[in-house]
Amino acid sequence: MNKKKILIEVTNLSKIYPYAGKQIHALSSISMQIDQQDIYGIIGLSGAGKSTLIRCLAGLVKPSEGQIFFHGEEIGQAKGNTLQQFHRRIGMIFQHFNLFSSRTVAENVAYPLEIAGVSVDVQRERVHELLQLVGLLSKKNAHPSALSGGEKQRVGIARALANHPEVLFCDEATSALDPKTTKEILDLLKKVNKQLGITIVLITHDMEVIKRICQRVAVIEAGTLVEEGLVAHVFADPQHPTTKQFIQGSRHEIPAHFFKEASENRKLLRLRFKGSSASEPVISQIVKIYRLDANILLGWIDHLQTTTVGTLVIELSGPAEGIQGALHYLTEQQVHYEELTPC
Ligand code: ADP
Asked: What is the pTM of this model?
């Protein structure tokens, strides 16, 4: 297997904003690597530092400390011509699309080509190609006000790709869209990544976005990187409480009285099965070997890019030593589990 090449490397990145006489530490000592042709997701709650991070990566905000390398070249502090050159190699799309309302769809897509001094004929050809790619040829003479949110984002994507960037930065690109349109835009981003080989770096607060298209994920909280890895690994065995929270989602579907009654003779467990490891034999073994009752309360499967992760929430009851034995058995069988306790 070919080893992936690093496209972006971040070392000890910090960003401090001076604000009202105070210092806001938006990012603290972030280090990460983004491989060429990956779709890399950065997730965090509002205020975690996602926008600051993606803006630093895109050369729109200067880091206070640390370095950002693009193909091994430091661009964090780049200025003038070097920064301009770098900006030609990247594209960016935004939550609120940032289209020119006075320009048609075709004119919006042509804008970066005009700035780059591309001839009118080549512009026309490229705009045609891009609108075909994003499925908007029939709307090329429309103005943004006549487009749906999803169509506006398609124009944003076409415009961002105009100058053949190597990486597309997506700043909450689907946050203003409904779930169906979100899926369509994510599918389009996947196509851009696969067909054109463009690396995608996105920020989001929505785990569904990460699950649907990303290979790797970084979880940030209060400006620090708390967890990073392959989406499949992070989903199957999340380490940090914030990551667990992002993944859980369904906890509140379990009636509260189940939590109140937890004791050494009764435990609520969330089990995670990765790939093909089957859940059924494990549970029937626990019941048989340790003479416990197992009640399945919830179950679902997450389809990730490279694997599936099955989750089961079960209630185990019986003798305390039997429950302890069952927990050891789960560890032996490499089934990740978490004990659920009252909120
Ligand atoms: P997110 O995108 O995850 O919501 P941001 O990067 O926008 O997070 O913000 C991280 C922190 O930095 C927040 O506390 C925010 O208020 C602060 N911040 C962001 N931009 C500025 C700015 N230009 N000036 C001062 N503080 C800022």
From this structure: 0.88
Residue position matching structure tokens 């939550």: 95
The pLDDT tens digits of the residues spanning 136-157 come to 999 999 999 999 999 999 999 9
Buried b (16+ CB within 10 A) or exposed e, 213-240: bbbbbbbbbebbbbbbbbbbbbbbebee
CA 23, chain centre distance (Å): 28
Residue type, 131: L
Length of the chain: 343
Q: What is the pLDDT of residues 29-68, one digit of tens each?
A: 999 999 999 999 999 999 999 999 999 999 999 999 999 9
* Domains in the chain: ranges and CATH: 6-89+165-248 (3.40.50.300), 260-339 (3.30.70.260)
Minimal-distance CA residue to ligand 1 atom 23: 17
**In terms of DSSP H, where are the helices of the chain?**
50-57, 80-88, 105-115, 120-134, 149-161, 179-196, 207-213, 231-236, 241-248, 256-260, 279-290, 320-332
As given in the structure block, the two tokens for residue 330 are 């789960």
The pick from 15, 28, 52, 205 for probing ligand 1's pocket by mutation, whose C-beta has the most ligand atoms within 8 angstroms, reads 52
Q: 3-state class of 169 per DSSP?
A: strand
CA angle 203, 14, 46 (to 5 degrees): 35
